């Protein structure tokens, strides 16, 4: 009788472990599918917009999401694309609390190199 009870418990435990694994896989797929580059009503609210980069006809922003749990100090980040500044502002307006400050456009690698060269030229001229 005790052996049968142990065997039944092992079987139940194995079934629960399998169910947990399936739920974890479903959660991972759901989270991957949930992240979209374009912002819509299902996109989490921003805590902060960290960087803004122009690429082609789009503006990309690195967004730090607001935590759903106020006790959680972890940071979740993602890139989102926008067609214009008005879309960025509309998304930023969804933040609770103080209004978000939109970042200036980051320099492209070519622009960074040009600034570095100009600085070197100024140093050598001095």
TrEMBL record:
Sorted UniProt keywords: Coiled coil
Coiled-coil region list: 6-33
Keyword Coiled coil: yes
Protein name: Unnamed protein product
Native organism: Phytophthora fragariaefolia
Species lineage: Eukaryota, Sar, Stramenopiles, Oomycota, Peronosporomycetes
